[in-house]
Design brief:
The protein is α+β, with helices and mostly antiparallel strands. It has 2 domains: 131 residues, Creatinase/prolidase N-terminal domain (Creatine Amidinohydrolase, Chain A, domain 1); 224 residues, Creatinase/methionine aminopeptidase superfamily (Creatine Amidinohydrolase, Alpha-Beta Complex). It contains 10 helices and 19 strands.
C-alpha cells in the first residue's frame, strides 16, 4: 500500500540538500518509533533504522525477526541478542560500512542516549537534525488519506450508535468506555487518544478527563474522541444537549461555530498557518470571548494524534496540498460552561475538503438519556 522506499529516498534528498547542514553525512539514524514505522512499515518497537544512500538497515531483536521479514523485507536486518545493547549493535553496523558522519533525530533522542552513543562510538560524528521526518509526515499521500477517511468514518459510526445508547445513570467513564468499545465493533483498532467526556461546567476544562460523575447530573456534554484504523487517527469534538441548552452555552456555541466556519473557508494551499488561526481567534475576540480561547486552532494528525503542522498564532509555515488538520475553536468559561467544535480538514488543490460529516449545531446534537 505504501511506497516506503520512496519515503526514504525523499528523506535522503531532504538530508543532503544544500543548507541542510548534513550534506556530507554518510547515513541517517532514525530512533523515533513512529518515524521508523513511517519509513519502513515496521509496526513493532525498540528498533532503529540506519539509512545510507545505497544500504539501509533495521536494527532490532529476535522477537521481531519474522515480523520484520513480513513488513519490511527490503531492509537489511541486524538482530541483537539479549546480551548486547543496541548501541553496540549500532557501532558495529556503522563501523562495518565505514560510516563516520551520521545524522540523528536530535529532537527525538534523550541526552542519556546521545551520551551513550558518543561514548560507544568516539570516532563517529553525530550531526543534529530536527523535524526532517515530521516534515515528510505532514503531507499525506493517497493511501494515508484513505486510511484517515476510514478512521473518521469509524469514529462517526460509533458516535451515532453511542448517542442512541446513552443512559443518564452512566458515569462519564462508562460513557467513554462504551464509545471506545463501539469503535472496535465498527472495525477500529481502538481509541486514538483518551476520550474526553465532560458534563456541565467540566466542559470548561479543555482536556477534561472522564470522571465518575453521572451524565444525568447536567444537561450538556462535551465529547472529544477519535478512532484509530491501521495506525491512523481521527479527531472530532461535539457538544451535546439534553433538552434546551443554557443561554450562555448557546451563545458561545454560536460564536465558536462561526469561527469554525470562517477558518475552514480560509484553508487552501499557501495559506499561512497563523493567518488561519487568526481568523478564528479574531471572530471569538470580537464577540468578547478572546480571553477564553487559549489553545491553537488545530493540528495535523496521522500516525500520531498530534503532528505537524500546527495552526497557532506563532506558526509561520504555509499549508500544502495533502496536509490534514483539525479545526477546533473553543470557548471555555471557568466554572460555567465550555464548547469546542472540531472537524478534520484535508488541504486540496482548490482549497479544502471537510472529511468529517457529523452535524455541528446544538439542534442536531440533542440527546435523550435512556
Amino acid at each position: 500500500m505504501f511506497d516506503y522506499a520512496a519515503r526514504r529516498q525523499r528523506l535522503w534528498q531532504a538530508l543532503t540538500r544544500p543548507g541542510a547542514g548534513c550534506e556530507h553525512c554518510d547515513a541517517f539514524l532514525v530512533t523515533d518509533e513512529t518515524n521508523v514505522r513511517y519509513l519502513s512499515g515496521f509496526s513493532g518497537d525498540s528498533s532503529y533504522l540506519v539509512l545510507g544512500e545505497h544500504r539501509q538497515f533495521i536494527l532490532s531483536d529476535s522477537r521481531y525477526d519474522t515480523q520484520i521479514g513480513q513488513e519490511c523485507p527490503d531492509l537489511e536486518l541486524v538482530t541483537r541478542t539479549a546480551a548486547r545493547e543496541m548501541k553496540a549493535v549500532l557501532a558495529e553496523t556503522l563501523g562495518g560500512q565505514g560510516w563516520r558522519r551520521v545524522a540523528i533525530e536530535s529532537d527525538a533522542m534523550s541526552k542519556a542516549t546521545y551520551d551513550g552513543f558518543a561514548a560507544e562510538m568516539p570516532a563517529v560524528e553525530f550531526a543534529d537534525t530536527r523535524g526532517l521526518v515530521l516534515a515528510l509526515r505532514a503531507v499525506k499521500d493517497a493511501a494515508e488519506i484513505a486510511l484517515i477517511r476510514r478512521s473518521i468514518a469509524i469514529a462517526e459510526a460509533a458516535f451515532l450508535q453511542w448517542k442512541q445508547d446513552l443512559r443518564g445513570d452512566w458515569t462519564e467513564l462508562q460513557a467513554a468506555y462504551h464509545l471506545e468499545n463501539l469503535i472496535r465493533q465498527h472495525g477500529g483498532q481502538g481509541r486514538a487518544f483518551d476520550t474526553i467526556v465532560a458534563g456541565g461546567p467540566r466542559a470548561a476544562l479543555p482536556h477534561a478527563g472522564a470522571t465518575d460523575q453521572p451524565l444525568g447530573a447536567h444537561n450538556t456534554l462535551l465529547l472529544d474522541w477519535g478512532a484509530k484504523f491501521q495506525g491512523y487517527c481521527s479527531d472530532l469534538t461535539r457538544v451535546l444537549v439534553a433538552g434546551d441548552p443554557p443561554p450562555k452555552l448557546a451563545e458561545i456555541h454560536a460564536v465558536a461555530l462561526e469561527a469554525h466556519t470562517r477558518a475552514i473557508a480560509a484553508i487552501r494551499p499557501g495559506a499561512r498557518l497563523q493567518e488561519v488561526d487568526a481568523i478564528a481567534r479574531d471572530t471569538i475576540a470580537q464577540a468578547g470571548y478572546g480571553d477564553y480561547f487559549g489553545h491553537g486552532l488545530g493540528h495535523g494528525f496521522g500516525l500520531q494524534i498530534h503532528e505537524s503542522p500546527r495552526l497557532s498564532p506563532t506558526a509561520t509555515e504555509e499549508l500544502a496540498v495533502g496536509m490534514i488538520v483539525t479545526v477546533e475553536p473553543g470557548i471555555y468559561l471557568p466554572h460555567d460552561c465550555g464548547v469546542r467544535i472540531e472537524d478534520d480538514v484535508l488541504v486540496t488543490e482548490n482549497g479544502c475538503e471537510v472529511l468529517s460529516q457529523l452535524p455541528r449545531s446544538l439542534a442536531d446534537n440533542r440527546i435523550d438519556f435512556r
